[in-house]
Amino acid sequence: MSEVIKFRLVKEVSDAYSTREIGYETTDEYPNLYNEKTGELGICGGHGIYAWAQKEDYEIINQNKDER
Asked: Which of 20, 39, 57, 60 could disulfide-pair with 53, CB 3.0 to 4.6 Å?
């Protein structure tokens, strides 16, 4: 089992119904989606609605940045 990746937003991201504020923290665990190749992070807001964050919208907070 791989390590859970933790993220902190550095920019606001929104879905159709709500906004995740700067400083919001989440992980790559289901139901969130994370694509390591593109850096896209889908933060599930419920009912299959996702707020999509790009690499520049978040920072990884539990890994050495030199490893990424």
From this structure: 57
